[in-house]
Structures are given as structure tokens and as C-alpha cells.
Specification:
alpha+beta, seven-stranded mixed sheet, two-stranded antiparallel ribbon, globular
């Protein structure tokens, strides 16, 4: 079972009819995109056509939700329009897996995606991302000093944004299935999917 599959029961419990597509042709179907309440993006290092990128952005602008985690959303496509839509892009991660912390932004503690949660630790990949200053950052992660950086560097790790009438949820956490065994990761991801969906 894939990580995406593990969220299908959650969505069905909340009344969604779930369709899974294993190619990008769905982004050519403007009417289908417009009729969809939530797109859970899980595609890594692919290529969108200019038309597909524009169709996706237009659907979200009109109210379709977009959500995802880790490389499935922030390293999905190297497309400027897509990066503007999601609010960020993957740059690098240190080699291998290591324990690192995620800190919830205190000023956003009431946001429905993270309300009631505490800071947490994950043993996995840690994503360094570049982000749009207009995103709503809910959690951050800090990289220690290394041979390239004399000081610690804190980057967004979980965020939301609006795009016209649509909502976007992004979490950089979730490289491997057991990352979602961390209760906070599972909870904020489940909540993020629902938050992003068309109201």
C-alpha cells in the first residue's frame, strides 16, 4: 500500500468519493479539475506541460483544493507557475535519514491544521525549501551549522496558502510510510487535506 492509499479511508470517512490517477493526463481535463473538491498531489520530479500547469492553477483559483506532502508536492514539477501555486520548492536535503525537530509557529497555534498539537521529532529526510513570503507558515525546521553555513538556518516545513478562491496545503514531511506513525504528522496531514478542500 502506498502512502497515498493510507489516506483514502480518512477521506472516505469524511464523505469524499476518491479517484486515483497514475498519469498526468487528468490535468488536461479542465472540466474534471473544476468539478473536483480536492486534488491530493503525489508526483515526484515530473514534467507538466504549460497547459497542464495553467489548468491546475486555474482550477485552484476557482476553488478546487490542492494538498500534498514531501516530494509529492514540493519536488513534483520544475515549473515556475506550479511553484507560485504551491508557494515553495525543494532545494536539498542532507544525505540519509536523521532525527530532526519540527516547531509549530506559536502565533499560528490556533490554525485548524495544527491546533492542540505540540512540537515533534521525525527520523527521516529533512527538506530545505525556498518559499513565497505570502504563505502562512504553520511549522518550521532548523538545519544546524555545517561546512556551507556558519549559523543555523530555519525554513518553513508546513504551510497553507490561498490562491484565488482555492486553498493549498503543503507539508514537507513524509518521505517514508513510518513518518506518518508520528501522531502529529498523521494528524496535521489529515487535517491539511480537509482544510484545503473546497468548503
Amino acid at each position: 500500500m502506498t502512502i497515498s492509499d493510507s489516506f483514502v479511508p480518512h477521506l472516505k470517512e469524511h464523505g469524499y468519493t476518491v479517484e486515483i490517477r497514475d498519469d498526468l493526463a487528468v490535468y488536461d481535463d479542465v472540466e474534471r479539475l473544476a468539478a473536483t473538491d480536492l486534488i491530493v498531489q503525489c508526483w515526484t520530479m515530473g514534467t507538466l506541460t504549460r497547459e497542464q500547469s495553467a489548468n491546475l492553477a486555474a482550477a485552484v483559483r476557482a476553488g478546487t483544493g490542492l494538498a500534498g506532502w514531501h516530494g509529492g508536492i514540493v519536488d513534483a514539477f520544475h515549473d515556475h507557475g506550479y511553484h507560485l501555486l504551491t508557494g515553495g520548492t525543494f532545494v536539498m536535503h542532507p544525505p540519509g535519514y536523521h532525527e530532526h525537530d519540527y516547531h509549530l509557529v506559536p502565533e499560528r497555534s490556533g490554525h485548524p491544521v495544527v491546533a492542540g498539537l505540540d512540537d515533534f521529532t521525525v527520523h527521516s529526510e529533512q527538506y530545505w525549501v525556498l518559499t513565497d513570503p505570502h504563505i502562512d507558515v504553520l511549522a518550521t525546521t532548523t538545519f544546524p551549522p555545517d561546512e556551507l553555513h556558519d549559523e543555523p538556518v530555519t525554513v518553513p516545513a508546513v504551510w497553507t496558502r490561498t490562491w484565488g478562491r482555492g486553498r493549498v496545503f503543503v507539508s514537507t514531511i513524509g518521505h517514508k510510510p513510518d513518518d506518518f506513525d508520528v501522531p502529529e504528522v498523521r494528524t496535521l496531514t489529515e487535517r491539511g487535506l480537509l482544510w484545503a478542500s473546497r468548503p
